[in-house]
């Protein structure tokens, strides 16, 4: 496949030819194969899965489960039973916190970091408040990485969960999750390691066996598949120990007036009619990515981050939050400019990016900043996009 102009696989760019889209950490554009899958499902084969036995329904059920197998294979999971469909990363985090809660008792500890997205922070914080658990927060080093020495000092026999992001959304910093997991397991082998892969999924080759987390989750819209679908991977043995999250159709085995027994994995966690079209879109996206995410494309992406870091040096009074081990994003501030004003002017210049606290308020409180400007790239961005951004940043003063 010709990967020189990847924008051509994303209809959004045809409809917005003058827009420079640098807000991929918020959401990536949906790829044509995903759109086709959604269209085909609704136009040609719309029916439910795992319920009716007519031809279309059966074909859909087969396809639905094939996509699950595809995802298991793509993530190098042991089995498709380890792949749970969710609405997205936020729902996956909530599912975990809720379903695990019966395994904890007052005084147990949960560790997370100060740089987490609220989905992987507020969820655990609220669970701790409700169950009277102790929430411990890992500090960061000067380059905004998890401080592994501090982490080591936090883990005790009471530690139940370590919840960290693979790549921090506010800063783009790739965190040393493999090291963190092995430190946690060494001190307390019972620690459940939960990794939020939302900002890693479209930039890194994911191998859940190698990462060795107990749970790993992400959203489909961060990997070109559109909204409304997410994946929660869990080691089978861990998933089996969890209580169901939602109750309803298809997550049951037997139901009587007195009692209910629950379905096997993964259906135990998938009550109600799922987002079938979005699952098909995710499957089509994985096929597409398997073809285009070559080493060359990955290398181009990381070169683009280096180029962005280099070019940003031209902009006066600009300070970058973190400069090392960046994956997909760079976050910065320009002194005397409020991030919102920067965004407003750039938007008028047809450049889309995100400013603010990026759903990571504890981080910005910690580093004492009002927010930041975040430039986030993806495989379809190129040097011209960066050049346009830099020219706009150099022109900020004149624009007023
Ligand atoms: N975690 C991280 C690191 C994220 O970047 C995001 C989305 N910005 C989420 C969780 C939440 O994802 P969603 O809103 O798709 O549930």
UniProtKB/TrEMBL annotation:
Entry's Gene Ontology molecular function annotations: cysteine desulfurase activity; pyridoxal phosphate binding
Its UniProt entry gives the catalysed reaction(s) as: (sulfur carrier)-H + L-cysteine = (sulfur carrier)-SH + L-alanine
The cross-references to Pfam families, in alphabetical order and at most eight, read: Aminotran_5
Q: What class of enzyme is it?
A: transferase
Q: What is its EC number?
A: 2.8.1.7
Keyword Transmembrane among record annotations? no
Cofactors: pyridoxal 5'-phosphate
> What superkingdom heads the lineage?
Bacteria
Q: Would the keyword Transferase turn up in this protein's UniProt record?
A: yes
Domain Aminotransferase class V as annotated: residue spans: 20-389
| Alphabetized UniProt keyword annotations | Pyridoxal phosphate, Transferase
InterPro entries tied to this protein? Aminotrans_V_dom, Cys_dSase_SufS, PyrdxlP-dep_Trfase, PyrdxlP-dep_Trfase_major, PyrdxlP-dep_Trfase_small
Q: Which GO terms describe its biological process?
A: cysteine metabolic process
Q: Which SUPFAM superfamilies match?
A: PLP-dependent transferases
The family note in this entry says: Belongs to the class-V pyridoxal-phosphate-dependent aminotransferase family. Csd subfamily.
What's the name of the protein? cysteine desulfurase
Q: Which organism is it from?
A: Catenovulum maritimum
């Amino acid at each position: 496949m010709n990967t020189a102009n990847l924008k051509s696989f994303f209809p959004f760019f045809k409809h917005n030819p003058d827009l420079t889209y640098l807000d991929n950490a918020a959401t990536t554009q949906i790829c044509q194969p995903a759109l086709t899958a959604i269209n085909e499902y609704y136009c040609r084969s719309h029916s439910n899965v795992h319920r009716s036995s007519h031809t279309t329904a059966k074909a859909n059920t087969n396809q639905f489960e094939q996509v699950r197998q595809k995802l298991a294979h793509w993530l190098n999971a042991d089995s498709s039973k380890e792949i749970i469909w969710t609405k997205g990363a936020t729902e996956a985090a909530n599912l975990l916190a809720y379903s695990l809660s019966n395994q904890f008792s007052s005084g147990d500890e949960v560790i997370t970091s100060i740089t987490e997205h609220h989905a992987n922070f507020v969820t655990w914080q609220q669970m701790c408040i409700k169950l009277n658990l102790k929430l411990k927060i890992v500090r960061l080093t000067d380059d905004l990485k998890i401080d592994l020495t501090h982490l080591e000092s936090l883990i005790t026999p009471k530690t139940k969960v370590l919840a960290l992001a693979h790549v921090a959304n506010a800063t783009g910093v790739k965190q040393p999750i493999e090291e963190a997991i092995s430190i946690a397991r060494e001190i307390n082998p019972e620690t459940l390691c939960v990794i939020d892969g939302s900002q890693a999924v479209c930039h890194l080759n994911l191998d859940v066996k190698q990462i060795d987390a107990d749970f790993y989750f992400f959203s489909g819209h961060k990997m070109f598949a559109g909204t409304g679908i997410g994946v929660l991977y869990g080691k089978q043995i861990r998933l089996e120990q969890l209580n169901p999250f939602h109750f309803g159709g298809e997550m049951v085995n037997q139901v009587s007036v007195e009692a209910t027994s629950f379905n096997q994995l993964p259906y135990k966690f998938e009550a109600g009619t799922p987002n079938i079209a979005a699952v098909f879109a995710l499957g089509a996206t994985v096929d597409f990515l398997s073809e285009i995410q070559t080493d060359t494309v990955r290398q181009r992406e990381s070169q683009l981050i280096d180029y962005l870091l280099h070019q940003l040096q031209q902009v006066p009074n600009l300070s970058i939050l973190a400069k090392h081990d960046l994956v997909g994003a760079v976050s910065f501030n320009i002194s005397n400019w409020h991030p919102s004003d920067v965004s407003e002017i750039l938007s008028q210049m047809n450049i889309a990016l995100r400013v603010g606290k990026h759903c990571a308020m504890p981080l910005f409180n910690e580093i004492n900043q009002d927010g930041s400007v975040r430039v986030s790239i993806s495989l379809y961005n190129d040097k011209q996009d960066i050049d346009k951004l830099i020219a706009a940043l150099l022109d900020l003063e004149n624009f007023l």
